[in-house]
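User: Sequence in, structure out. Go.
Assistant: Echoing your sequence, followed by the structure tokens.
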Amino acid sequence: MKEQEKLKAIVLKRYSAGSKVADIVTQTGVPRSTVYYWIKSGIQKETPALNLRDYHFLKQKCERQEKIIAILRIAPCTVSAPLQEKLMAIKHMVSEEYNVNILCEAFEVAKGTYYNHTLRNRRGETQNAKRLRKLFPIIEEIYHESNQIYGAGKIAAIMRSRGIHTSAGTVAKIMHEHNLFSIRGGAKALYYRNKERKENIIKQNFTVTAPNEVWVCDITYFRVNDRTYYLCAILDLYARKVVAWKISQRNSTHLTKRTLKSAIIDRIPTPGLIFHSDNGTNFTSNAFTAYAKKCGIIQSFSRTYNPYDNSVCESFFKNFKQEEIYRKDYRSEKEMIRSISRYMDFYNNERPHTVIGYQTPNKYEADYYKRKAVQKS
């Protein structure tokens, strides 16, 4: 036994001195597996002492991980969600508590990607939208040079021949947005249908003179207890008042139509009301457009790539999430709906609004009808 311990000490000494395991096996005759076992059990790695700098580093790392966990618990989407959903979640969650750096890390999104998609220039555009805007005059010029004959494929080919590299799909998207269609069978009907559906009537003019002149509408989403919910809200531009809202677990035409129907029943607007939204399928479907037309409503649509065309709704949803959704821990769906209902009542009756001189929406609207009554008398 003493000889084995002596041999073990020799093996460990040679290994510590830098000898290779193969050389030790040859020199001592000890099996390779035994040498490895002795090395593993006989040489203890020294654990360096933890200094104050390391302590603070680990403390900050733990605090950062705790913040990431807290973010993911209240986030409206998961890390595996599509990029656009994560970018929108980051945009709405930026606050004094959660900055862009920690949010991007939590959602595994590069900061450059977030800034490229979210930060706008003076025109309120993303970098991609700016690029598409610059391409439009070139596409329009080639289109008219061909006497409206060329489609997206031919125009893209001509652009490439001029040193402007872009895909036919991108050209088609820009052409459809600006109602440029090749002269061919069915093009005329398609042209007028898209022109009617995609017209932007209000053009960021959010000032109106009376209630029920212009309503703006949009849909947002959030997650509660591992379920995704969609909120559709309609605001009257005059007093920035929420005139209808509905919640559903499905983002569908049924949700938007149900919300509009509720607003019409409650407000009874006269024909000619302008209803502004984005041009998603929820608002451009045959079912929705037919119902709006039947009610005497004129639809207006935001331009593609420009969320500022519906900034009133964007601003409302941001406030709604920061003041309600991100502050509450709902135990059930019923509790969530009750709490949101209280918030909507608070928003209309108690919360001062900057645009209307720090008055509440309901008071501002009531004052309008009082003035009208006095004028009539």
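User: And one key feature?
Assistant: The first helix runs from residue 2 to 16.
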